[in-house]
Each structure stands twice: as C-alpha cells, then as structure tokens.
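Hi, here's the filled form for the chain we discussed.

Project: internal
Contact: R.S.
Residues: 505
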Amino acid sequence: MITLTGNDLTLKQIKEVLYDKKKVTASTKSMEAAQKSRESVEKIVSDNRVVYGITTGFGKFSDVLINKEHVQDLQLNLIRSHSCGVGEPFPEIVSKAMVLLRANALLKGYSGIRPVVIEKLLALVNADIIPVIPQQGSLGASGDLAPLSHLALVLIGEGEVFYKGNRMDSLHALSHEGILPVTLEAKEGLALINGTQAMTAMGVVGYLEAEQLALEGELIASMTLEALNGIIDAFAEEVHVARGYKQQIESAARMRQYLCDSLLTTRQGELRVQDAYSLRCIPQVHGATWQVLDYVKEKLEIEMNAATDNPLIFNEGVTVISGGNFHGQPIALAMDFMKIAVAELANISERRIERLVNPQLNDLPPFLSPEPGLQSGAMIMQYAAAALVSENKTLAHPASVDSIPSSANQEDHVSMGTIAARHAYQIIQNVRGVLAIEFICAMQAVEFRGPEKMATYTKALYEKGREQILSIKADRVFSKDIEKAADWLKTIEFDQFIKNLSKKA
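And the returned structure, exactly as it came back:
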C-alpha cells in the first residue's frame, strides 16, 4: 500500500501503482488539510464573498457573480461544457496515472475540495476503473481542462471508462464496485480540472518507458559492437573521466560491464585504428540523453507533487489567490527536451543498423541475407528504421514554442505541454521500433561471428531474443518480427534481467 501525502510521491511509487497494481491510500494528515481547506470554501460561500471559481463564473466569465443556490449547477455545467476532448483515448495506463496524480495534488490542501471526492479518486485507482479520456483538446493552460473534465465526468456517473478489459458507461462500472457518484459542490469541479495532470501523466509514463529504452539501447549497442568487432578501448574509463560528464562515465561503465569477457571485440590497431562515431561515441551520445532524462525526472517529480489548481486557498481561507500554477510551461519544455534526447537514441541506432547491413561497411553477408541476391534479408528493415527516424524529426519540433490565445484573450499565453508530452510518447514508440530492428540485425550478425564468443551479458540477451525471434534462414514477413521484438523490449523487466545476469557473471 502506498500512502499519498501530496508532497512526496515518487516515480518509483507511480511505477508500482501502474505496473505492479499496488493500492493507494491518503495520509490522515493530508485529509485533515483537505478538510480545513474545504471549510474555508464553505465559509466563503456562506459569507457571499466574491472569489473566482467559487462565487463567479470561469475564464472570461470571472466577473459574473453566481448566487449560492446555483453553485452545484455551476460545477456540473463546468464539467459538462469543458468535456471537449477529441481523438483517440489516452492509453489506459496514462489515464490511471492522471487520476492518481490529481488525487495527490488535491491532498496538498490548497484546493478546497471535500475529502470524500478525493476518496472517490483513490477508489477509481484501486478498482482499476479507468476514465476514457480523449488525447486531443488541451492547450496546457489553464491546465489540462478538457482531459481532466472527462476524468471528472466519471466521478459524477457520466462519461465512459475502461473496466475489466471493456469500455462501458462509467455508472455501470461504479455500480459494480459499489462506488456512488458524487454531486459536486462549490469549487469542486474547478478543483478537479484546473491542473497539469494530463501532460504530467503522459510525461511520467513516457519517461518510465524512455528510461528502460535507454538502458536496453546500451545492451543492444554492445551486441552490435561485437557483431562489428568494435574497438573496446574507446570505452576506457579514463577517456570519459577526462571529459567529466557523470552520465557519460556511467554509460561507458555499463558498456564495459556488458562486454568485459567478449572474444569478439578488438583493441586499437588490431583490425582498425578507429571505429565510426556510431560505435565509438555511444557513451557520449547515450550519456547526453541520460543527462536530459535526469532533468526530466527532476521536473516530473516536482510537478507530481505540485499545487496546480486555481485559485489556491491559504491561511484557512483568509487569503485566496488567483495565480497561474496551472500553466504547463515547465513540463512543456521538459517534454520537448525529452523528445529531442530520446530521438537521438534512434538516430545513432539507425546508423549502427546501416553498418550491420551494408556490405561496404563490414565483412558480413550483404544485408545479412542467407542467400544474397535471391533473398533480400534485412535490407528493408533499415528502410523502416530510417522512416521512423525521419518521422521523429518532425515530431521533435518543439510544441512549447507555440501559443494561441483563448477565452476571449483572457488566457493569452498557453504552454502546449500536453501536445509536447503526446509527441514525446510517439517518439518513444518509434525509438523502440528502431532498437528492435537493431536488435534483430545484431542477433543475426553475431551468428556469423559465433555466439559462443559473445560476452556473458550479450549472449544472455541473444539467447532470450532468440526465444522471441528466430534466426533468419529465409526471407519472411519481417514486420511481425519487428513488432514482436518491440513488444518484448517494452515488457521485459530489464532491471531484474541485468540483476540476474550480474549474479551469474
């Protein structure tokens, strides 16, 4: 069980909830803070104070006062009218993360929402009732209004959910789990939708996948190095310490670990003096990606525990401030940065694929074909990798440099953070496809060298890989192999795989 406080949720804990199905609960202290904040809202309503979103309309309607007898209608109308998402739904795991993150933010005690509403959010997480949330329609300020409105619909018994493998009306799933819908009171609709949880949830899931891809990329690259009789000297510790980047030093150390007992790598001058950059500069390029991932991780863990509501309630309701914490610029920039960094993993991987299949760049059979000429072998796999890499270049265009005014120019600068996060996730899927192709080609190439000469780590990966992808004895529909390899790379428990290898080594 993971206890949420609103202040210290980690990526590791989110991973446990999303992938290991750990249950969540709220700390007593955080629920007490939420209750005090709620009492402040109720006093504001009873005193007829003019406070944005509590006794007024929203956005450009902030100067329209609402009578206290209409506060429930105001919140209901808000949720329904703002549910304007379009396109395919977010992946279920992203929507589940969204619910978790919204609950965590509300537990900070600045939003004025009743504890019972937070309990409903936690119940959705624990019961795996996942809102159907369209991916498109958010500007990233005022927060992720449209996506979070579709989330909020579920709490009031409207909208749709994914439940037990089916898509259905939310009320049916809620009834099955004995969860009663809520009637939203003053400010509660606004508290549910004014935040950055869509872009942050998408970013969190993307980051977790990108982190695994970066690790897998180094092990796959190690196999490629063996297939091409690469020069191990380029990974010597003193080379990377001399430059000083921590992530580069660590990447080189992992490469040395993976290749420590290989009989296929060479030394300077043995076959050639230098390797091409796509082999020699793996720690420099991958290390730079790790630098960005570390930056992204830091920003995500701040945002996961941030109060992104508006207005925020302080001093037991004495101070209520309309600010702009809903603005997604920090996450927008982080996601754009991640897009570029992760795309580079594919850029350099595709160049390694070219070196594996191009007979002018190696001494292997052309295109790793079993019968060059009659059979094309891996020729078009490189085409596919090149296409994915080129698509990534378009997706890597920064979303955060764009803005467009909304709400009659009241909201005149927005982040586009959710678009950045969605594009980052698309890039990550493409990168996995490229790495899957490199993996297939590297496995085929080392067969010509002799798998018995491989290092302990790479040989273990080769043997695992061959359980998924058969050796190429004749041309076949390689699309299925690429898809299968990519799926395996997505699901492999890489940390445990490496730990098990370390015990054997």
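Let me know if anything looks off before we file it.
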